[in-house]
Specification:
heterodimer, A: alpha/beta, six-stranded mixed beta sheet, four-stranded antiparallel beta sheet, 12 helices, 38% helix, 24% strand, B: alpha/beta
Chain lengths: 282, 280
């Protein structure tokens, strides 16, 4: 098992008291597998993903408990150099808004080179590697585009650059946190296609964090549905999508507008109704 | 003076052969650059009380078209008639009343509200501009009623935009747009930044409001599934031109233009979800 998360708990401390964001979450991921963590904003999915490499604020602002076993080693116990060896090199991230992740003062090529120099000092010809990476993420005319600044690129291109930076470290696990939410549908389809292709070619595992079941279908092997900081349903993606059991999962799938299925009103996710249904099931 | 709500049978909005060109740079130090023709000879009509969807990728000119209707983009030729009146050539003073009648809701609700104003003053602002004679008491009642209409409770009044979630902020923007009692609302990607579940709530809210108040929408978006759901007619825009216009049913059932087919192809296919019978 590449990643084994056991009973992960995260809570944020404020003047009013503790606010638990993740309440005992467990999941695992094998080499080459794709897991989608699906939930609405506030469900704790991003906090879960950031806890994996200790990206959250330190105690006492934020209390993280549980185990994050990466090849059997608990990442939550690591510090300093050991932790930095995991970040980027083993587990890499891409986030929702590529423009805020890229530094506007440096060329995209320079930012990719930075990641290569830091994590793979053995690479001799960094320039050639930058071009190869841009090529790999489908940026045409990579030789010329490497000297572009982020503002000279479209949103889709910037997200491709972010993926190139993430891949520069040859991670074994790529965490994609809402990678297409800020993009057009056509660009979203291209980015998902790119991730699919890279996953196959590089054999890496992916954790896809999203609120949209539409992009999970046909992409993920496993699904974990998060609701108020807990995983309420998890398992094989196709099985869950074909036959969702938890009322929350069903509501999340229903609310996606479907082409060619006109209806008067879109179904919504009604938390009170979900609580009732859960109580009725119990 | 025309009656502002005359049901004359003519379309509320008629756009004819509209072109918009953004000037190139020609300053002393910046060198010469050609202008960009963002909208090229676009014609369409919007009937009163209906929703017309406008789809296209980013850069296709769909937002510019929306801005051109509001005289916020440089129109170089063509005409825009609102309720029979030619508005594209009007000067700012003459156009003023139309700024009340046509409202906009943008994609990022946080960016379109002043973070230092309370929700009460945000929603009341159009009333201060467009209905100067209104008594304070009446204005406050109107604001409370508007917030209720968009599904927010009265305790939202004294709070600030940052204290709300994305969906709630968009509700505040809708309340503000409604406070001027407009006939026409341009929704520019107003659900694109929201979670699917919140998107469904806002789309339903817009439809409820339309049913109750008879407001007409131009619904600009890049997601064909949402547009198909909310619109009667759909305009497809690519590189500044309208490449296809059809009813929502026809557009989905038999898309004519290659670009439309490509947009339809980009909507997530959802093979398992659509096959699933468990949800029906």
């Amino acid at each position: 098992m590449l990643l084994d998360v056991q009973n992960l708990r995260v809570s944020f401390r404020s003047r009013e008291g503790d606010n638990p964001a993740v309440r005992g979450v467990s999941f695992s991921l094998a080499e080459g597998e794709t897991l989608a963590i699906v939930g609405e904003s506030g469900s704790g999915k991003s906090v879960t993903s950031m806890a994996l490499t200790q990206l959250l604020p330190e105690a006492p602002l934020c209390q993280v408990d549980g185990k994050v076993l990466l090849n059997g080693r608990d990442v939550l116990c690591l510090k300093g150099k050991e932790l930095r060896a995991i970040r980027g090199k083993e587990i890499s991230y891409i986030f929702q808004e590529p423009s805020t992740s890229l530094n506007p003062y440096f060329t995209v090529g320079g930012q990719i080179a930075e990641a290569i120099k830091l994590h793979r000092p053995e690479v001799k010809d960094v320039g050639a590697e930058v071009v190869a990476l841009l090529d790999q993420v489908g940026i045409r005319d990579a030789e010329a585009r490497r000297s572009d600044y982020p503002h000279q690129m479209s949103g889709g291109m910037k997200q491709r650059v972010m993926i190139a930076i993430a891949l520069a470290c040859r991670p074994r696990l790529l965490v994609a946190d809402e990678p297409t939410t800020a993009l057009d549908v056509t660009i979203e389809a291209q980015i998902i296609e790119l991730l699919r292709d890279l996953r196959q070619r590089l054999g890496m595992s992916i954790i896809l964090i999203t609120h949209n079941f539409g992009i999970v279908d046909g992409f993920a092997d496993k699904v974990a549905v998060m609701f108020r900081g807990e995983i309420v349903e998890s398992g094989d993606a196709e099985e869950i999508l074909a036959n969702p059991r938890h009322p929350y999962t069903r509501a999340l799938i229903r609310c996606i507008p479907k082409l060619g299925e006109r209806c008067d009103r879109l179904p919504v996710v009604d938390h009170a109704k979900i609580d009732e249904e859960v109580a009725a099931l119990a | 003076m025309k009656a502002s709500n005359g049901d004359s049978g003519r379309p509320l909005l008629e756009v004819e052969d509209l072109s918009v060109t953004y000037e190139g740079r020609s300053g002393l130090f910046s060198g010469q650059a050609d202008g960009v023709r963002a909208v090229k000879g676009v014609s369409f009509k919007v009937e009163r009380g209906t929703t017309v969807g406008l789809v296209g990728e980013s850069g296709s000119g769909k937002s510019t078209l929306g801005k051109a209707i509001l005289k916020m983009a440089p129109v170089i030729s063509g005409s825009v008639r609102f309720d029979g009146d030619e508005i594209s050539g009007m000067n700012e003073g003459a156009f003023r009343p139309y700024r009340r009648r046509i409202q906009t809701i943008f994609q990022d609700p946080y960016a379109s509200m002043n973070p230092r104003m309370t929700v009460a003053s945000i929603v009341a602002e159009p009333l201060l501009v467009h209905e100067k004679g209104m008594a304070k008491r009446e204005r406050e009642d109107r604001v409370v009623a508007l917030l209720e209409k968009v599904g927010l409770s009265g305790d939202a009044l004294r709070r600030y935009p940052h204290q709300f979630s994305g969906g709630q902020r968009q509700r505040i923007c809708i309340a503000r747009a409604l406070s001027a009692q407009p006939e026409f609302i341009i929704c520019d990607e107003c659900v694109s930044a929201l979670d699917v579940s919140v998107q469904a709530q806002i789309v339903n809210l817009l439809q409820d409001i339309q049913q109750e108040l008879g407001i007409t929408y131009l619904f600009i978006a890049h997601d064909l599934a949402v547009v198909e759901h909310i619109s009667q007619d759909v305009l497809v825009m690519s590189q500044g031109e309208l490449v296809e216009q059809a009813s929502a049913e026809d557009l989905y059932a038999s898309p004519q233009h290659d670009y439309t087919k490509r947009l339809l192809g980009a909507v997530p296919r959802m093979p398992t979800i659509l096959r699933s019978t468990a949800l029906n």
